[in-house]
Known about the structure:
Blueprint: E1 3-14, E2 17-29, E3 34-38, H1 45-52, E4 60-65, E5 68-69, H2 75-85, E6 86-90, H3 101-111, H4 118-124, H5 140-152, E7 158-162, H6 170-187, E8 190-195, H7 198-201, E9 206-211, E10 214-220
Helix pairs in contact: 3-5, 5-6
Bound molecules: adenosine-5'-diphosphate (2 copies).
Amino acid sequence: MTIIVNDVNKTYASGEVTIHALRNASLKVYDHKIVTILGPSGSGKSTLLNVIGGIDRFESGTIKVASQDLSSMKDSDLTEFRRNYAGFIFQQYNLIPTLTVEENIEVGRELSKNPLDMKDTLEKVGMYDKKDKFPYQLSGGEQQRVAIARALIKNPKFLLCDEPTGALDENTGKKILRLLKFVNETYGTTVLIITHNQGIGEMAHTVIKMSSGEIVETYDNVSPIEPE
Length: 228
Ligand code: ADP
Ligand code: ADP
């Protein structure tokens, strides 16, 4: 399930100005890897995840995921792709406040053709005991666990995480990173993580640095450290 991004350009029109969110971005992500994307605000990190996950279209270049060419897909195929292949995790959890933990996760399960088991998923993220709670009754770290479960239960090929620890204190953030690493190792899910935190880069197999829409550096960590 290699992800190959080749020479991708994406612009936004902002009044009279054209913003180059991605400039000739090229990248290869191998199966089962954890990849972190570092770079200042506005450097194109979210845009990169959004085009890989099939949320956004792009103007030129190609993106191939498991040999499927996203650039040539029609909208309905792109939606299918997004539902079955990609799991999204955001800084602000984006849970539905009127639904319980289990019901929020059920939203993910219903999207997928090949979902995982509910009880097993709840147990894997450590939220089985709180399955009947509502989001407001949970801590930030617990809400993020639910958001991870909602993405994971789809049995996605990859998880796209946009600042997943950005709203959490350092210790809780480390627990979330450990959970993402556990998911990577248990299910073989490829995990892409956007972060401002240089330290998070050290747990990844591969680190990508972006600046002004360009991928300016890519390197592999020979022995990624465990988030303690
Ligand atoms: P981050 O730096 O955490 O990635 P941003 O504030 O850059 O967050 O972006 C958050 C969301 O808002 C993204 O989904 C992005 O596509 C969107 N966004 C960013 N800048 C603009 C903009 N100028 N106009 C409209 N939407 C934007
Ligand atoms: P990052 O995630 O690194 O903060 P983004 O990918 O969110 O960067 O944004 C890259 C650039 O594209 C920024 O200049 C941002 O303001 C702009 N941008 C992102 N989304 C939109 C949007 N929906 N409309 C207009 N401009 C956007």
